[in-house]
User: What shape does this take?
Amino acid sequence: MIKSKGADTMTVIKVAILGFGTVGEGVYRTIQSHAEELTAVLGKKVEVSAVLIKNTQKARNISEDVLVTTEFAEILRLPQLDIVVEAIVEREPPFSFLKKAIERGCHIITANKEMFAHHGEELLELAEENNVSVGYEATVAGGIPVIQTLRQLLNINRIKQVQGILNGTSNFILTEMREKKQSFEQALQLAQENGFAEADPTNDVEGFDAFYKTMILSRIAFGEEPNWHDVEREGITAITSEMIETAEKLGLKYKHIATISRTGDQIKATVRPALIGSEHPFYHVEGVQNAVSIQSDIVGEITLQGPGAGMFPTASAVIEDLVYVCKNNKPALRLRALTTN
Amino acid sequence: MIKSKGADTMTVIKVAILGFGTVGEGVYRTIQSHAEELTAVLGKKVEVSAVLIKNTQKARNISEDVLVTTEFAEILRLPQLDIVVEAIVEREPPFSFLKKAIERGCHIITANKEMFAHHGEELLELAEENNVSVGYEATVAGGIPVIQTLRQLLNINRIKQVQGILNGTSNFILTEMREKKQSFEQALQLAQENGFAEADPTNDVEGFDAFYKTMILSRIAFGEEPNWHDVEREGITAITSEMIETAEKLGLKYKHIATISRTGDQIKATVRPALIGSEHPFYHVEGVQNAVSIQSDIVGEITLQGPGAGMFPTASAVIEDLVYVCKNNKPALRLRALTTN
Assistant: This one.
């Protein structure tokens, strides 16, 4: 299966993983467990060369021949580096790291929606200049192939509207509140105990996480974003057990829904709780599931549903990106001398 | 947008459409209404050069510069022909037409599941020899991009099981019987009046249509098919209003479900009615909707739902294939002298 044209180094694709949390570790384990499939698909072996970590005290099950470091500069100095996978959180330092990776000539893949919502355009432009690819399927709806599906539909369809349940934590809390008659606080605590919510859940329950994903989807579906300040963003913290109970008596459910649509030249988006009936495609999307519904002119309405987060679903999206950037029509992965910038 | 390298003919992609029923007409109309999008995506103008029809007496709204003929040989003799779209039914003559088209050096796209379930492998091999592509997304689940999604997941995931509601007519009948307390015969008649079922509904209600689609999915998901004779195929004709009513009292619904799974080296498939509860992803798939659920090792379970048939959803799948075969890594569309074989 392995093609042996060119230098020896061309038969191996060297990957660095930035961050070894849930997603980073999922990517590392998947590259190891699915080595055979990757070699078969790519005709090259995929190897993790380095992992960037923060806390040197934590025990991690990483092979000894992998460089494990707290210094990104050390990773950049590796003699070969083809792809940088970023699985950190927050905007910085990830944005700076990825800029340097692109300038070195690496393809980049990110799962970081906050960073990508803010700096995606800049990274895509820089990548274009440097003739490398950017994968970001993992930023929206975890393992559900939303971005690829939108791209494919867009070959011919004109998208009218995109709706999504994009935050698994909020959906889990709303589901628990309704099914088990729990308060918001009880349901949040359960989400935290199950690892679906952070100690500080603001990003999820106030709708910021869904907002970032919505902006990324808008850019793909419509080529642009609404003005961020014009987007109504509301989380689920104001929803009480009583509201949910009253809704249920009417056959309705609260869901936290992102909606993006184009009217004429204007893109409009909202990210907020909505009351929906059983005819809505999201009525039965429960727990940590995500769903995205795409309305377009030729095909009509298509709904995709699946796990929106978690170690392996997100890793799957990252690895699909990895295959995509490697097989993309760009020139073969190149080694570029490290310049001092 | 239009690249002008090479001969003039290279700036136009010439398409012949075989059959002008629902799907054929949908493809024709879509190529006209979305000409701008196609030129933008492909860098070439897409033109319908010819349409193969059966009945010369029927009025059709087809542009005067399109060759409308009952003779496939006339289409094959066109000075330029890049893509043949087949939207007929039954195995012959479509299979023979497509073989000749491939031998002439045309890419082919088909929406004909019965023909493709029987002869797909042979067509794919012949296409490989002739260095052309075959598109068949439209054979399964209309506008839902099931085949592309499976292919993409397969880059890295190992598929465990694929399930589908693949026949919109059967699903419509079961939905009507339950929601409106109708008999099978009443619901079938309504399906016929709405154009969802043929005068002879055997293919749909006895499960043959779903069976063909299941075999096509099996080949993509697992690289092979079960022995056709070992597949339990049962339609919905034995389901009575009483059975549906009893099920409903238990919170269950009858759905006509195709299931394909691999155990060890063995592929197993069934196509039959199943009683499912509200936890099943197909419980809420109603009317003429289709759905496909894919279970794989890394990403978990993903469900896709949408219109499984109809003029424009199916046309969308055909046109996505058209874009795909044109952009595929094969050599550019070639003109080959028509040989006498």
In short: The two ends of chain A are 38 Å apart (CA to CA). The longest strand of chain A covers residues 253-263.
